Amino acid sequence: MTKKAFTLIASFLISYLGANAQSSANLVQYINPFIGTGAVDASSLSGSNFPGATTPFGLVQLSPDTQDNPDNPASGYDYNDKTIVGFSHTHLSGTGVADLFDILFMPTTGKIYTTPGTSENPETGYRSRFSHSQESAKAGYYQVKLLDYNINAELTATEHAGFHRYTFPQGSDAHVIIDLNHSLNKKRSYWSCRIIDAQIRQVNDRTIEGFRIITGWAQLRKVYFYAEFSKPITSNEMVSGNHIYNNNTIVNGTNIRAALNFDTKDATPLLIKVGLSENSIANAKENLNAEISNWNFDGIVKEAQAKWEKELDKIKIEGTTEQKQIFYTGLYHAFTQPNNLADVNGDYMGADYALHKAKDKTDYSTFSLWDTYRAANPLYTLIQPKRTAGFIRSMMRQYETYGYLPIWQLWGEENYCMIGNHAIPVIVDAALKGIKGFDINEAYEAIKASSTVSHPGSPFDVWTKYHYMPEDLQSQSVSITLEMSFDDWCVAQLAKKLGKTADYNEFMQRSNNYKNLFDKSTGFFRAKDANGKWVSPFNPLDYGGNGGNPYTEGNAWQYLWYVPQNVPELINLLGGKAAFANKLDSFFTIKDLPKEVNGNASGFIGQYAHGNEPSHHITYLYNDAGQPWKTQYYVADVLNTLYNNSSSGYSGNEDCGQMSAWYIFSSMGFYPVNPASGIYEIGSPILKKASIQLASGKTFTVNTKNASEVNVYIQTVTLNGKPYNKTFITQKDIDNGGTLNFVMGAQPNKRWGVAQ
Amino acid sequence: MTKKAFTLIASFLISYLGANAQSSANLVQYINPFIGTGAVDASSLSGSNFPGATTPFGLVQLSPDTQDNPDNPASGYDYNDKTIVGFSHTHLSGTGVADLFDILFMPTTGKIYTTPGTSENPETGYRSRFSHSQESAKAGYYQVKLLDYNINAELTATEHAGFHRYTFPQGSDAHVIIDLNHSLNKKRSYWSCRIIDAQIRQVNDRTIEGFRIITGWAQLRKVYFYAEFSKPITSNEMVSGNHIYNNNTIVNGTNIRAALNFDTKDATPLLIKVGLSENSIANAKENLNAEISNWNFDGIVKEAQAKWEKELDKIKIEGTTEQKQIFYTGLYHAFTQPNNLADVNGDYMGADYALHKAKDKTDYSTFSLWDTYRAANPLYTLIQPKRTAGFIRSMMRQYETYGYLPIWQLWGEENYCMIGNHAIPVIVDAALKGIKGFDINEAYEAIKASSTVSHPGSPFDVWTKYHYMPEDLQSQSVSITLEMSFDDWCVAQLAKKLGKTADYNEFMQRSNNYKNLFDKSTGFFRAKDANGKWVSPFNPLDYGGNGGNPYTEGNAWQYLWYVPQNVPELINLLGGKAAFANKLDSFFTIKDLPKEVNGNASGFIGQYAHGNEPSHHITYLYNDAGQPWKTQYYVADVLNTLYNNSSSGYSGNEDCGQMSAWYIFSSMGFYPVNPASGIYEIGSPILKKASIQLASGKTFTVNTKNASEVNVYIQTVTLNGKPYNKTFITQKDIDNGGTLNFVMGAQPNKRWGVAQ
């Protein structure tokens, strides 16, 4: 055997074994799509996740809805509900506001109903009872027995298509209901959901196509579908409002449904594959043909599982089964969006509502940036660098057609939900970490425009004139002042990298604006009016929502800690490290709640509310105060008590990956308090081992000894074998590859991580 | 000189002289755009025409709006109003329902207002007073002095672009307001107008672009614009709701406006050219560049006039100046729509809301078919055969994407206004007259689908089951039964031509369904319920509107006459010619009105209401009853008393050319009572001469001697020199070319036109 031949064979064996190892890793087994699908009780928040079938970053999320015209949870599925209204093809994961729910299919038998009925009286419509004991889900697959009809319904998905397998009882009165009136709650006036027009057309006895045009949380969505059936449609009933047309070929209208009838005497399942497009029926058909060319349902399930396995494989962990379930379901939730809305041919609808063509065949949307810039986007930056470049190219498209980067982008359109301009930290973080695939100069132009061109929530003329947001000119003024100061700091960092000194100086100046709202008399950031007068009365416990109050979905206690760009200066404002740590102690222990708590605030530890994003970085701030063991304590407390592997596994809305990303980082032992700094604060690792596979081919591994719910305190740390006393690691440390070892114990090691 | 050279010169001279003759005809001088722009008083209906600048069948109608959020008149301009709110780029001509009004521009001086103010207090907004004494309009041109600002505003247009010339007083506080919130009345709940999103962007100091996405009478319209200014914008104020942004580059929102500021010290006018597109800003720019390449405002006016001259030239008439003004303004109104919505590159939005490409670069819309199939479409068939083919190709596109032909198509979308499926007579008429340019077999497929696939207002399963429309299953049942019977007759005629005998027989059978609603006991068509019981109480004077009553915008008297496909059978139903004529006599003389008359019924002669379409053919029915002199009397009465050349020149809404087409045909002496039969009933010509230039090159000329308001009765008729005693002519007579001579007198010649 020559050396060359040996090398070849060895190389083969290595890749074979590697592939095998990867395959045998079977990380998808830990995905539990039911995590986050229900609240513990009516007083709690659901994660707002959905249990149905989807692929990483795909357009389609084919999932059961337990609610017609859903509102809360925003996913349309509540684990505590007893009936299912049907399976719609698009869903949001973890948001606080509902939308999508497009193209609902529901198999039934017996009498034909084309309206869903009520949850109180499921027998008055097509809705069916179901039981969790006859329901199952895994990545890319969902199954439920519809008890009222004795139908076993199974779902899987590709990026642009849903695949249904309905096993009916033997008979001749099987139906599939298509309901294009199923949408978010049309009565909630502030989203003003309205179906503008819709169509269902029977093309032939095995093909249905159509669309709906709808305005809702997303201002305008056009959703086209093309559906193929494995059995012939024997007859139909098409319905528009109260009008019923029998065996019509088409129905158009704003409230349209159809019942398709099938013969199921042969007992073989009915298969339905449904392509979707935001642009045209022709594209929906092209999308379907590109992704599901046969009738092999199980094959598509396997493909979906393989796609998930490939994404999960980026971080391999050791830990308890529950930890693995939370961790990998967390990755699954983080990778459920942003969603590539572009058709396979690259067509997409821009933020200008016009048809455009994406050269890269991708146009990502669902940018819940106020949530995700904190940890979900840094997670993508770390292990999804190519996708991150795609996200940025997609966000840049909004800048080009809409004048500024996304704030909250849904279905390619700005919905102005929440505050700040947090595409900026996302892009700056990626640029500073050297991610390729977007033009850094154009990105800077977009960032600067988003920081200077006034738009809803961002009146930059006010910002420039007052150096804070006066509450009488801009509601949510304290939160915006704090978060905008951080965004400005991010702009400055990229300006610096690009050598734009004047810009750097100007934006660094702006990044200090938060100081103008620090009220020494109360020790809190507090609203001022345009005359510079503190707004009274002031109670640091009082909550704001999304307008009409200086604090966004939080109170003065929660927003006191939001200076991630300059924690040392925040410590100075609060009177030094000791005072700062004392105030943190109070924060985590004061249990008083005002009469009205914003609904998004949940998962309390004192005033800390892990259920909503403003709190997410706060446990880590003890590090800078010289008391890292308290960071360790509270981080471990959150990891161990506010996450679990049940349907109520999150302490609030999962928020498009942010709640999961917090766990993913924190469970490995570090978290990006300042998400654009390349610095990760060290907390309290709970996983025995975590190996991050970097795109460079290098691996960064964290090993943790003795971690447990009791052993939450760091005893010693080594980085690449050398003792490590810093309370943070850097992106460079990770990029270099290597090993970070923790040894944990039940008592704080107050010498570790503190300047000696 | 060789013979060849002589021929060339002669040929040159002929075309030179021909061109000169055409030019010297100067028919556009007779267009008075103010006709139809106002009602006589508050109790009358306006023609709902607009006085602004447009080109034949163009996308853009740049015209002043006197009303903000217009409702009635639907054109946005009421001649009786005292203030103008601005100049918007799209308008409907003559409709009963308002929509469009896109991209309003208004020049002002002094204090900046970005809301229009009220008509009661014009000084509280950008609105300005104006006076008709300082206002003028001609084809393709409009001018008004804005008295509050001392600004002379002039407008002209190309197919896809508006061109503004604003002469400001010398100064430095000149403004142009752009208001994208200007729309139809948003409070009229049944159209539910809502602006979904809009954008104004300052691209540079001479360019503004943007769009608005709006749902209204048309379910969804996307209107993009690209505007170039001849002077630099010195500063701007961009406004979203109550938020004002100074010198911003962009504003997005649902209620956005902008003030652009200019220096006008040099006293030269500010020129603005604005391209429009229904698809994208890029296309709006391309449209503008294709049509207005320079800053020659007067040149564009001349081009617009030449375009109109070319269209008017198809019929040359002699008569009084008032007759010429009514006639040519009628042609102008008839040729104002349908509008080609396609971009110059052929892009258009289909009825499926997706982007499509038209090979012929045209996609016509604004099909007010319930009105126009009666005479406006036959007029197009006669003198606009190429356009007619384009209209049909465009209507076929709705069939392809929407399943059936248009009922009332606005902005490429079906709005289901009015009843029937009157694209059918339009297409059948064109097919039977041999118009080329569309596929007759595909057209038949579309016609048959539109007559068999149930849709709103057309439940064909009910039609097939009951052989009439029961009022309890389909409101407006009498009108629909009558009009659907006619449409069915039309389907049968095309089936016959294509040799589809079974279809012919079936549809001929269906065309008799009207008989099932003839109530012998009352002598009227009357509603039945699904049990076959006459609906009571019944009063033939009682009016219906657009639902909730068996009669559409009319009463039993007016609908009694609607069997154009078989007048002899209608005569039989009514008891023979004498009884029929007596009933007609009653119809034209009974003056009783019920308490509530539908608002569209106006222009009364007894129960006859020329202000709305159901009456339009009725004066001609005496011909079939053997009393043609009564046809002559009433036709002349309508021509002479219900049309004039003033702002209140029509007796009701002009209805997209139908009211004008009635005059155009009738003033020449004939009218298509059955618009798909190729037969024109002879009435009472009032024009001294009318020459119709046919596409074949032939000419059909009508000469009339002694016509006057007194001499309304036909004395003798010759066709091509031979005495002519029939009360109708045929399309073949016209196609052959030739001359029809009338001699009129003050007394009926009761021997003419009557079987001897």
UniProtKB/TrEMBL annotation, chains A, B:
A Gene Ontology cellular-component term: cytosol
Signal peptide: 1-21
Cofactor(s) in the UniProt record: Ca(2+)
GO-annotated biological processes: carbohydrate metabolic process; glycoprotein catabolic process
Matching Gene3D superfamilies: 2.70.98.10, alpha-1,2-mannosidase (1.20.1050.60), alpha-1,2-mannosidases domains (1.20.1610.10), GH92 mannosidase domain (3.30.2080.10)
Keyword DNA damage in record: no
Subunit architecture: Monomer.
Protein name per UniProt: Glycoside hydrolase family 92 protein
